[in-house]
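Section 5: illustrative case.
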């Protein structure tokens, strides 16, 4: 994948403009902690108060990584009442290419998380983008035209800051959307792409079931997650490369995990994907 350059969009305004210095310090601290594999016992600055400020921190963090290539984006949900307060029902965060691995590989056997931070496994549908010219899609039919592959998978959500989710969506956005890696499993047949919400997913931690659902409970489903992401990146002025993966959201929930544990997700009629967790 060809590296792409990122710059802050003039469309991101509001409190981000009045909190640049504080936000820069937050981004610097998170990037340093991620480079070192170190925990942050407290949030490294004032909490971002809205999504504009949160994405400004995330955008700076992306720039600080320099030539590290973004191979995908995670999409997560904003629950009530924060969705009404923030004016959005989802969030996005970058997934770097070197943290995207294939199920069954040696790397999938040692997916790293942050010691002393937060970590969780999430069973998700992974959709690969094939960007098109013209207007962004507004329906499932149009969205399918922007996709050239779908696979089952696992998002490993991890942050150096243990309260990354507990402190709210803006804090989650500010540290890479709380992502540490992606495990790609089996391909989903194209005939099923329009009916992903019918496929039951069951999650397991160390062989014990921790949840079972379909993506029908996920707002407008995996295809809706793609539409959200495309609009989010366009508003931020961020480009897309062909082959970018969209980790479309946790089907069965966010299941906390720790070093030495295994996480497995079974997708009815498709197969299973598993990974082991390491510090």
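Designed sequence:
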């Amino acid at each position: 994948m060809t590296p792409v350059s990122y710059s802050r969009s003039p469309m991101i305004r509001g409190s981000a403009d009045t909190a640049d210095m504080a936000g820069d310090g937050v981004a610097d601290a998170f990037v340093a902690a991620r480079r070192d594999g170190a925990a942050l016992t407290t949030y490294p600055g004032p909490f971002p108060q809205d999504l504009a400020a949160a994405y400004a921190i995330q955008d700076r963090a992306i720039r600080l990584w320099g030539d590290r290539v973004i191979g995908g984006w995670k999409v997560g949900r904003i629950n009530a009442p924060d969705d009404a307060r923030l004016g959005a029902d989802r969030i996005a965060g970058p997934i770097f290419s070197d943290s995207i691995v294939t199920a069954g590989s040696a790397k999938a056997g040692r997916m790293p998380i942050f010691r002393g931070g937060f970590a969780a496994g999430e069973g998700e549908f992974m959709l690969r983008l094939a960007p098109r010219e013209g207007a962004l899609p507004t329906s499932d039919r149009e969205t399918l035209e922007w996709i050239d592959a779908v696979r089952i998978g696992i998002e490993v959500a991890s942050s150096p800051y243990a309260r990354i989710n507990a402190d709210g969506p803006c804090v989650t956005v500010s540290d890479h959307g709380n992502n540490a890696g992606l495990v790609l499993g089996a391909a989903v047949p194209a005939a099923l792409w329009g009916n992903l919400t019918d496929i039951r997913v069951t999650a397991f931690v160390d062989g014990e079931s921790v949840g079972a659902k379909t993506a029908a409970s996920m707002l407008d489903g995996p295809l809706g997650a793609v539409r959200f992401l495309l609009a989010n990146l366009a508003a931020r002025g961020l480009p897309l490369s062909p082959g970018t993966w969209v980790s479309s959201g946790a089907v069965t929930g966010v299941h906390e995990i720790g070093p030495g544990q295994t996480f497995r997700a079974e997708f009815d009629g498709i197969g299973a994907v598993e990974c082991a967790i390491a510090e």
